[in-house]
Each structure stands twice: as structure tokens, then as C-alpha cells.
Amino acid sequence: MGRNKNFIEEEILDKAIVVFQERGFTATSPEELVKHLGLSRSSLYSTFGDKRALLIRSLNRYHELTGEALNKIKIDNIDPTQGIEQVFELAIQGCYHPGKPNGCFLVNSIIEFSPEDNGPLEIVQESYRECRDALVHFIEIRKNTSLSFKNIDVEITADYLINAISGMVVSAKAGMDEKACRLMVKKTLSNLL
């Protein structure tokens, strides 16, 4: 009979997200994972597999949490401008916790892995699709409720906003402070909304 786990897997994955986001996959050693996750090496490997398997599980967890947050934004916001602003706010929060510019965990991961490494890439692509779908949702509402936006191209506008989010998170990773990031987002949205 196996030993009972004295930890909750989701909590460990949440801690792993922070470690990988701060340090990156390559720079994170197994010793650092054991230290920061508070698990023995045997518990870590028997539960999550190797470091790459832990990263994949962490990416899936991050994607799941982001998807839930995007769905909540869509449900909670009738006003399309507020909805789009909250999608950007979610991206900002993902870049600046705990108070320093770490960049987005998904974007950091895609930058670190090659395009041939389908595991991380597929998770990131699915997360981007969900974010884009949320933006399309709000842009369509705006188009259908505002005469001044009746000719807006929903698909191109959604791609523009996704590109703006991507640029923002890369800038955060490069060291842009949160205040400058928020000003950039405000300017981007004022040009569109």
C-alpha cells in the first residue's frame, strides 16, 4: 500500500508556477524545486515525474486558472470596454506578482522552448485562443451596440489586442515597471475604445 500524500497537488503546482516564472525552466534546478515546493525529492518525482513533466502540469494549471478567470470576466461584464480592460488587467496581474516584473508564465515558457517542443507550445496556443475568444466576445458586443463601431473588423481587432498583450508581457519580462505597463495599456485601449 502506498503512502498517503500530505500535500495538495494544486497547491504544489501553484508554487511551481511561481518558481518557473521567476527563474525559467532551464535555470531552475531540482534542488531549488525541492526547496521551494517543500517536498522531498522522492515525493516530487513520484507525484509529478521529472522536471519537464512538472512544468507541463504547471502550465496546464496556469492555463486552467487563466481560463476560469477569463470566463468569469465574460460572465461578469456586460460593458465591452470594461470586459476588455479586465482581460488586460488579468495579463498585468500575471506579469507582476509578487510585485516584480516576471513576465507571463505562458509567454516565458514559449520563449524558452523551441517551436518543435509541442507540449508547452500546445498549452500556450490554447490559452491564447481562450484569451482571443474573450476579446472577440467583447468586440462583437461593442460592434453590435455602438454605431461608431459597426464597421470594426472583429478578427483583426482581436489579433491587434492579443499582439498588444504579448508585447506588454514581453516588456514586463524585460523589466518594464508596472506603472509604465499600465500607462502603455491605457494608451493602447484609448486608441481603440
Q: How would you describe this protein?
A:
The protein is mostly helical and 193 residues long. The protein has a domain at 60-192: Tetracycline Repressor, domain 2, CATH 1.10.357. It is 75% helix and 0% strand. The chain has helices at 9-23, 30-37, 41-48, 51-76, 80-95, 105-112, 118-145, 154-173, 178-192. The protein is elongated. The N and C termini lie far apart (60 Å).
Keywords, please?
193 residues, 0% strand, 9 helices, mainly alpha, elongated, Tetracycline Repressor, domain 2
What fold name stands as the CATH topology of one domain? Tetracycline Repressor, domain 2
Question: What is the C-alpha radius of gyration, as a whole number of Å?
Answer: 19 Å
**Total helix count?**
9
Largest sheet: none
Which CATH top level class of one domain fits?
Mainly Alpha
Topology pattern, helix = H, strand = E: HHHHHHHHH
Structural class designation:
mainly alpha
Helix content: over 70%
Question: How confident is the prediction overall: mean pLDDT?
Answer: 89
- β-strand percent reads under 5%
- Identify the CATH architecture of one domain: Orthogonal Bundle
Overall shape: elongated
Low-confidence stretches: none
Query: How many strands?
Result: 0
